[in-house]
Amino acid sequence: MDVLFDNLLDLLARETDRHTRLYALLNRESEEDGRMPGRDLLTVQLEKEKYVAAIRALEQERIVVVKELARTWNTPWEELTLRAIAAKAPESMAQALLNAHRELVALVEKIHDLATHTSRNAKARLKAVNATLDMVREALDGHSTYSDKGKIHKPQASMKHIEV
């Protein structure tokens, strides 16, 4: 049984490590908000995806351990939260499990907050770019243009059909 608790603590430590690395990437992206070159932004995105995939894999491993504990305790595994597991764990492991749980939850909240902030900023920048493009398009409407042969073309007046 202690082996299962050791495995669970190890998985939680590895999950915390991956979440910490993900947070660092998000923080870097946020600090360079709007200034990061496209190539670097793509690299950061690929690294984030790598950590998310690793976190998902660790989560699946953790579910296997939780299912083993549930089988041992004759309890449905879906009911076993980390708090419930800590309550049934040996005293020497219980506090370590609760600490790991607290640390992981705090990290997930920080990641969520930072990702939300960065997303809002990106949406605002995109909105500003689209507004600028709309102004440029509007300014170009009605201006003369050049053909492939270098002749000036006046814009064609367009009339909308209105049914009377």
Name some characteristics of this structure.
mainly alpha; two-stranded antiparallel sheet; single chain; disordered C terminus; 164 residues; 75% helix; 4 helices; Methane Monooxygenase Hydroxylase, Chain G, domain 1
Here the CATH topology equals Methane Monooxygenase Hydroxylase, Chain G, domain 1
SSE series: HHHHEE
Count the beta strands: 2
Strand content: under 5%
- Alpha plus pi helix count: 4
Sheet with most strands: 2 strands, antiparallel
N-to-C CA distance = 85 Å
- Identify the overall geometry: rod-shaped
CA-atom Rg in angstroms: 28 Å
CATH class categorisation: Mainly Alpha
Q: Give the tally of structural domains.
A: 1
Q: What structural class do the secondary elements suggest?
A: mainly alpha
Low-confidence stretches: 157-164
Looking at the overall shape, the CATH architecture is Up-down Bundle
Helicity level: over 70%
Instruction: Give the spatial strand order of the biggest sheet.
Output: 1-2
- Overall mean pLDDT stands at 86
